[in-house]
Amino acid sequence: MKKIGFFIMNIESAGGTERVSINVANALAKQGYDVSFISIGGNKPFFQVDEKINIYAMNKLPYSLKKDYFSITKKLRELVKELQLDTLIVVDGAIMLFSALALVNLHVKHILWEHYSFNFTGNRLVRTLGKYLASTRCDRVVTLTESEKTLWQEKFKTNNIISIANPNTLLPKNKLAKWENKTLLSVGHLFSYKGFDYLLKAWHFLSKNHPDWNLKIVGSGEEEENLKNLAKALDIEDSVNFIPRTNDVAFYYESSSIYCLPSQTEGLPLVVIEAMAFGLPIVAFNCSPGVKQLVEHKENGFLCEKNNIEEMVNGLDLLMNNPEFYQQMSDKSRLMSKDYGIEKIIEEWKAIL
């Protein structure tokens, strides 16, 4: 069976990129593929990895391109040759700079799996170069949506771009979300681009009219102290719960009512697909093609103008006030989530390996 390597920034991270990469790797391993992870960071995954999968860590985080570029590239090349990989899947265009050189003259299929929106501005120079290298060096570039695929094709005039959606493996076992839980949920890294400050400002208005509801924010990150201070300044700290990152996020999906995504940018957010599977209606900022694909306005939730707190408040308020309307959207969310089952999507991956 083919030998597949996943080259990832840090398998120890607890984000959607890491979760979905592990989901796909686990599914391939279960079907007999020889799968490995090569992590620039550590080797202790936050999410469960199949016991048949080997993890190789460089322990190079944080790195400096100036100081560490050649050592990381050299180590990657050595591992690809040692493992006799047939295919290397690069998870995130920001690390294309390493694989583009590491695979020179090696007969290894080179795939970029881009999890970020085409227009994401973080680390702009590195990502711009990464996109160019992927368009010229990779056998395939995998985007998360057809809209992102089109953006790549229009920019680089190449036919090596395909789209494969993020698969969901987290399904409800016994319980589903329900209106009676009276809980608004949001999950993610506590980084500035995740927009939790907008959510807190929206909750400032909502909590006055819904004193029996509460907000749960699940995640960890550099903005935690700032967000807690903002909640205190807005006088909402009694109805807001900050919960550290967890690998039992299913508990929070099933014990909540509505999922809110206040992000400034996203790819195809796995947390939204997971929340839909548990029957959570979604209220989100229209921050990317992936979010627009998942949230059908007034069908399974509300798609709000980016950063428009008033629209977010209005959408949430409608769901919080109308349990029958809520249930219609909850049922629609569950139905739509079935388009992202692992069985279908893993076949799409196997077709390009």
Automatic annotation (TrEMBL):
<dbReference type="GO" id="GO:1901135">
    <property type="term" value="P:carbohydrate derivative metabolic process"/>
</dbReference>
<feature type="domain" description="Glycosyl transferase family 1">
    <location>
        <begin position="177"/>
        <end position="334"/>
    </location>
</feature>
<feature type="domain" description="Glycosyltransferase subfamily 4-like N-terminal">
    <location>
        <begin position="15"/>
        <end position="159"/>
    </location>
</feature>
<keyword id="KW-0808">Transferase</keyword>
<protein>
    <submittedName>
        <fullName>Glycosyltransferase family 4 protein</fullName>
    </submittedName>
</protein>
<dbReference type="Pfam" id="PF13439">
    <property type="entry name" value="Glyco_transf_4"/>
</dbReference>
<dbReference type="InterPro" id="IPR028098">
    <property type="entry name" value="Glyco_trans_4-like_N"/>
</dbReference>
<dbReference type="InterPro" id="IPR001296">
    <property type="entry name" value="Glyco_trans_1"/>
</dbReference>
<dbReference type="Pfam" id="PF00534">
    <property type="entry name" value="Glycos_transf_1"/>
</dbReference>
<keyword id="KW-0328">Glycosyltransferase</keyword>
<dbReference type="GO" id="GO:0016757">
    <property type="term" value="F:glycosyltransferase activity"/>
</dbReference>
